[in-house]
Records
---
Amino acid sequence: MEKEQQAKNILAKYNQGHIIKILDKLNEEKKEELIDQIIEMDFEQIIDLYNKYKQDELLVSNKDIKNIKYIDKYGINESEREEYKRIGEKYIKEGKYAVVTMAGGQGTRLGHTGPKGTFKIDTVNGDKYLFEIIVETLKKAEKEYGVVIPWYIMTSKENNAQTVEFLKEKNYFSYPEDKIKIFMQNEIPMISDDGKLIINEKYRIKEASDGNGGIYKSMKENGILDDMESKNIEWIFIGGVDNILLKMVDPILVGATVKENNLVASKSVVKAYPEEKAGVFCKINNRPKVIEYSEMSKEMCEQRDENGELLYGEMNILSHMYNIKALYTLADKKMPYHKAHKKSDYMDENLKMIKVETPNAFKFEAFIFDGFEEFNEMTILRVKREEEFAPIKNKTGKDSPETAIELYNKMSI
C-alpha cells in the first residue's frame, strides 16, 4: 500500500489522474508492475519535454548558418590519398578500430515482422539478411587488414531478444562470437497531445526508444566504452543497419581525421537536388551541425556557391566515426530532443483499448548528430552516393529494397 500511495502521489503531482483510475481497476500483478514503472520513471523529464516542444520548431536563420568545409575523397591528389590511407591502415591493423551498428528498429515499414537487421533481400549473390551483409563487410576488412574488428550492436528493448536469438541461430554468420557485444538503448515515454502519458495494451506506460542520439549514454551505461578502452580501441565507426553499401572500415576516413586533428568525422554525399528531404552538414554559431530539411527555408535549400554547387549540399548518410575520447565526452552530455507526432492507440480509464486514425501523441528522440556541436571542428569526407549509400527504409519507391538492391548489385558485379 505504501508503494501504491507513492505512485499515486507522483501521478497526482504531474496531472496524470487517468492512470490513478486505471491502477484502481487492475489485478494485483498488473498493478504492481505499473507501480514499479511509475516509481522508476523520470516524470520531470517527460513533462519538461512536453512543455518545451509542444510548439512547432522554428526554421534556422540565414545569419546563424554557414557552409562546412569537406574533403572530396575522389578530388584529392594521389599523394594525399596515400598518406591518409597509410595513417588509417596503421590504426586498423593495430586493432585500434571498432564498428558499432545501430539496429534498434523494427522492419514494420518494410512489411517485415521482426528486427530490421533480420530483413532479407534478394541480391545478385543470393538472398542475404541485412546483418549478414554487415558481417560480410567486416570479413572483407579482416582479410584486407589481417585483424578481426570488434563489432558492437545496439538494439532496443523492443527487439533485443529477437536479435540475440536470430544471431545465435545463424551462428553470427561465422563471425567470432567473442568479438561481438550487444547492448540496448534507453527508452522514453510517449505523451498525448494534451499532456497525458499513454497506457498500452499490456497495462504499462508506453515508451519508445530515445533515438539514435541516446547511443552515447547507452554505450557508457552498458560498459561498452570501458570495454573498448580495455581493448586499446581509439577509433569507433557508428552506422545504421539498413544501408547495405555502408563502408564501415575506411582507412582514408581515419587518416583524414587524424591528419586534421579532429575527434569526430562523418561521410557525406551531395544532395541529388535542392529539395531532397535529408539533413545536411553545416556550421551554426561556428560549431558543426546537421540541420534537417524541415528546418531550412526554400531559399537556403537552393543557395549555391561560386562553383555552382549547393551551399548546403553535404548530405548526412549516418556514417560517423569518433575517437573514444569524444564518445566519453558525449556520454556525459544531455542531448537535445526532437519531437515526432505519431499515432498511438491507448487504454482509456475503463481499460478499453482505443484505436486512433490520426497522430495523437508525441515521441521524443535525440539525434546522434547533435553531439557534433560539442566540438569546434569535424572532418567531413564526401563520397559517391552510388558506392556508399543504399538505404532500405521504405517498402516501395525511394530508399526501398528495389532501389538499394540495384545499387548493391552494381557494386557487387
---
Amino acid sequence: MLYDQIQETVQFIVSKTKFQPEFGIILGTGLGLLTDEIEVVFEIAYADIPHFPISTVQGHKSKLIFGKLADKNIVAMAGRFHFYEGYSMQQVTFPVRVLKSLNIKRLIISNVSGSTNASYNTGDIVFIKDHINLQPENPLRGFNDDRLGPRFPDMLKTYDRNLNALALDIAKQHNITAHEGIYVALQGPNLETPAEYQFIHRIGGDLVGMSTVPEVLVARHMSLPVFVLSIVSNKCFPIEEISETTVEDVIQLANEVQPKMSIIIKEILKKI
C-alpha cells in the first residue's frame, strides 16, 4: 500500500541521517550543477532507497542530497522521474510524498521547457503561475487514502503569485530576464510537432514540457506549497523560428543559464 511504502522509505532515510530539511528542491534536466553549491551533510543514491525509482535520463545524477543552501536546511533531488521512462504516475511522484513526510515546508521545482510564447526567448526564466495538464494519466487516479490528502483537491491557488512577484523582483535586481507563465504538460518523450506547438500557443500555454505537473498535483494533494521555475531551452513559437533540438542542446543551455537560476533560488530561500 502506498502509505506503508512512504513510511518505510521515510524510516529508512531517518535511520541514515537525522538532518531535518525545511525545503525540498527538484532539479530538472541539466540543472544538477546547483548541487555543487550545497553544503552537503548527507547524500544517498536513489538505487539504495527503498521503493525509489532510478532516473534513466541523461543529465540526472539520481541521488538525494541533504545539506545547507543559503543557510537553509534543504533536501535536493538531483534528478527526477518521468512518465515517459515507463514508470507509473505513482512512481514518478513517490519522492514528493516522501519529502512531504520528511516534514519539508515548501517544495521548489525546476525544469527546462520549450517556449510557445513569442516573447519568451531561449535562456529566459519563467515562474509558473498555472498549468494545463495534457498528460494521459493522473497520479491521483485510483483509491484515495485520506491520510495523504482529499479525494478532490482544489487547484485554484496552487501557485503562489506573491512568491512569483518576489522572484520577478529578484530577477530584475540581478538583470535576469524573467516572466510569469502557464506550463503545458505532455507525455513525451518526443518533442512536439509544429502543429502541436501551434495548438499549445492557441490554448494559452507559454511553455511546454514533460514533467512537473504530476509532482505539483501530488504536492497540492498533500497541502505542500510549491514554487516552480523553468528555463526556456528552445523557442517553439512562432513556427518559423523552430529549429531542431537535441537533449545535448538542452543540457548545454541549462548549464549556461543555471547560475541565474541558482541566484534566484538562493535569494528566495533567504526571504521565505
---
Amino acid sequence: MSTRVSLFVTCIVDQVFPQVGIAITQVLERLGYQVDFPEAQTCCGQPAFNSGYPDEARTIARHFLDVFRDAEYIIVPSGSCASMISHHFADIFEHDPKLLAEARALSPRVWEFSRFLLEVAGVDDVGARFDGVVTYHDSCHALRELRIKAGPRKLLAKVQGLTLAEMDVAEECCGFGGTFSVKFPEVSGAMARTKIDSIQKTGASTIVSIDSSCLMQLQGVIDRAGLPIRTLHLAEVLASR
C-alpha cells in the first residue's frame, strides 16, 4: 500500500507556477507515493506576518492547521513557506496554548520537497535526465532557517546529462524578500543584478532553486536584460526524463 502525502502548493506556485506542483506530483508518484491535494488550502500567512499584520496571519495559520490536521506528511515546494509553518507558527500562537500545541505537533510533519526526498523517501536519484549546465541559487529561508544547502546539490548531481556550475555568490539574496521588493525596488533590483552577473560568469543556461519566488525575481531581471537564461524549480529538473 502506497504512503499518502499531502501537497501544500503555496500561493506563488498555485497562482503563477502551477507546473511546479505538477512536477512535484510526478516525482512523488514515480516513487510510489499517493499525492493528496486538499482543495481548502490557501496560504501559510507569511505575507501578512512579515508585513506586520499578526491577527490576519493568525487567521490564515489557524485555517492551515484545520486543513492539514490529519496529514501524515505535508510536502512544500518552498523553503520560505516551509520555514514559516515549521518555525513561525509558534510565534503566531505563542499566547494561545491550544493552537501552539497544535502547531508544534504539526511542525515535524512539514517537509520541504528536496529534504523529503532525501530524508524520508531515502532517494537521491529519481531517474531524471536534463541536458545542460545549471547553477543553483540558495534561497535565504531555506539556507538560513532550514539549513538546506547540500541536499538539492546532491539531487542535481544524480541527474543524467546535467553539469552543476557554482556561482561565486550562491548564498547571497536575490532581492525578492516578498514585500521587500515592493517597498525597496531600487535595492531589490540591484541585488538581483548582482546575482545575474555572477550567474553569467558560470556559463549556465539555467538557474535552479527550491523557491519559485526567488526564481520569479531573477527571471524578471533576466527577461528585461534579454539574456538567454531560464529559471526552473528543482522539481521541474527532477521530473525531466
